[in-house]
Amino acid sequence: MDTKRKPGAAREQVFSFVQRRLLSxxxxxxxxxxxxxxxxxVQSAQQHLEALVAEKRLVRTGRGIRLPEMMPAPPQWVxxxxxxxAGAPVLAAENIEGYLPASLSASAPAAALGRKRSGQLFALxxxxxxxxxxxxxxxxxxxxxxxATAESGEIVVALLGDEATVKTLRLRAGxxxxxxxxxxxxxxxxxxxxxxxxxxxxxxxxxxx
Length: 209
Description:
Order of helices and strands: HHHEEEEEEEEEEEEE
Radius of gyration: 26 Å
Helix content: 10-25%
Structural class: alpha+beta
Largest sheet: 9 strands, mixed
CATH superfamily of the largest domain: Umud Fragment, subunit A
Strand content: 25-35%
Shape: elongated
Distance between the termini: 59 Å
CATH topology of the largest domain: Umud Fragment, subunit A
C-alpha cells in the first residue's frame, strides 16, 4: 500500500472510485483499482475491497461487486384470490388459491378520487372478454395494488355488486365511469363517492401452454 496515505483515507478513495465506476455501468476489476489508486501490489487493492465488503459498503456477487442499493429486491409473494366480498379483497385462507412472486413497488400513486391510500398487493384471475382490446384476456391474472383511489385513465379493479371487475377508470365532472375495452360491453357510471375501488392493476400475467 502507498505509505503516504493513511489506511482510512485510502479505503475511502477506493470506495469512491469503485462507486463511480459501478454507477457508470463499468464495474472495475481489482487491477483497475490498483492502477487507479497507485497501489504497488494488487493485494493492497484486494484487501481494501474485502474490507469494504466486510463493512457492507460493497456486496460481492457471482460476477464481481455491487453497491448494496444496486442489488435486486427479493420477490414479494402475492396472494391469488378466488373471490372478493364486502367491498374489499378478503385475504382469508379460504379465499386464496395460491401465491405468485412479484418484484414490485407498493408505493402510493397520486390520487384522483380523494385522500391517498395504498396497501398490499394481491392478484385476481380475469373472467370474460370485456378488456380484450386492452390486451387483458379471459384467464389472465392481474397483479393489483390495493388502494381506494386512482387516476383517470388507469386500469383498476372495482366492485360491481358482489363481483370484482377490471375496467379503465374515467373521471368526468363528479362522475366515475368504468369503461370496458370491448364494444360489446357498456360503461358503468357512478357518482364518485359511490364507486368502490379495490385497487390499481400494475402487472399482467398470462400462461402460455
